Amino acid sequence: MVKFMKTYSIWNEEKKVNLPSLQKDCTVDVAIIGGGLTGLSIGYQLKDTNFKTIILEQNECGRGVTSKSTAKITYLQEHIYHKIKRFGDEKKAQKYLESQREAVVLLKEIIEKEKIACDFESSPSYLFVTDEKNKPKLDKEYQFYKQNGVNITKTKLKNYPAIKVDDTYVFHPIKYINGLKKILKDQIYENSRVEKITQKENEYVLCVNGYTVKAKNVVLATHYPYFIYPFFFPLKNHVETSYVKAIKVSKPLKINGINLDKENLSFRFYKDYCLLLFHSSMSSARKNLRDNFIEKGEYNWTNKDVISNDYLPFIGKITKDDSFLIACGYNTWGFTNATLAGRIIKDILCKKKNKYSFLFDPKRRRNLNKFIRFFVDAGNTLTAILKSTKKNSNNQNVEYRKMKGKSVAVYIDKNKKEHIVLNRCPHMKCGLVFNEVEKTWDCLCHGSRFDIDGKCLEGPSNQDISFDL
Ligand SMILES: Cc1cc2nc3c(=O)[nH]c(=O)nc-3n(C[C@H](O)[C@H](O)[C@H](O)COP(=O)(O)OP(=O)(O)OC[C@H]3O[C@@H](n4cnc5c(N)ncnc54)[C@H](O)[C@@H]3O)c2cc1C
Description:
Rieske Iron-sulfur Protein; 8 helices; 8-stranded mixed beta sheet; 26 strands; binds flavin-adenine dinucleotide; alpha+beta
């Protein structure tokens, strides 16, 4: 058993570099909401344009989903290309592959050009199977890469069949974010939560810290987009939670990998740690967590990402004109896609053609397969809502009760103090489930997270929850 188990991401050991919060009204051309990898990548691309741009981050830049990833920069992305083919066609899969290979190069160029010290290093990527019966899947992937001009080799990982590419990388995400923050420091406001957006004639009005930001264009880079109910976003995706642990190893390797078996396992190394990520369905993941996860690994944390129903990101405008844009839905491959989002959003705003804007268009049409997935996503969301209304924790420190006729969730701390919150996420009123790794209340439907006293840590909820006794 590890003596000092930390329930936060290894990247969060990096010390904080705070920027000021917004303390005045202002008028800009572009307001970017969210200072994760997406927001800063867009800000970076816009810096050499004539747009007056502002980036508004509710906490500290990069400490959202970005800080909890494994930070691989790779286009060997599990079997995403076959999933894209299934819900689209071969051409879309090819175009997506092209985009990801380009994004790896683009990110490398930014790091080198700006001389960002972010532990960026070469790390060949492996795709492997541990179960012989999944070998045909691996062969299919190999064929796809080969046919599309990728220099890929068949090999072994330990004794498992594997395929490998060499032109991929890993880095430290917070060090990279801090590098971008330094470049964009005059445009970024931290601890500045956008609470409301209204549209007035030709501009948007944002409420932030009691001040007003007027913007001609708004870019939502909040990971899960807020404020856009008419777009029916919850029906076009689901949120997937993954578990990550960092374990000290005696012989770290300069490689990363992901398998194609039923239980997904992804890994990379950082210094003398191995970072292991596993996906699972929510219920089995929670069981896994209790049974064998919490005590193992020096660092343990959870993370979530938006999985789109055709496995392609949503990057582009959602209004008829170019005034309101989003960038999200990266299917757990955000470092390539967020970097690319920077370029695509810049091109849209500058009225330049971008060869990927059609592929990632958030308003793209549904086909029959996507239509079916639409019901699967809606079903997943509904199941999560139903689950969250039942008693869903075996943790003795967690209780669900009725108080003043309302359903409340209670966490009892080690001093026997009760922390009571209303068992309703403010976003769409789903119930909450206790996250035993990070001691948070999580919404299974759309991924909002709250601390034990109801402070909103991650969206899509834009409000805290409370319960007046
Ligand atoms: C377990 C896991 C591992 C992953 N590993 C990899 C990997 O190895 N390689 C890879 O390419 N991708 C990986 N990803 C995906 C990648 O981490 C994400 O897709 C990416 O970091 C998303 O970045 P973002 O900027 O969109 O979101 P975030 O980093 O979450 O940034 C959004 C920001 O918006 C802010 N915000 C939200 N609401 C407001 C508001 N109202 N006002 C102001 N600010 C607001 C938040 O505070 C936050 O900082 C992984 C994902 C998971 C779940």
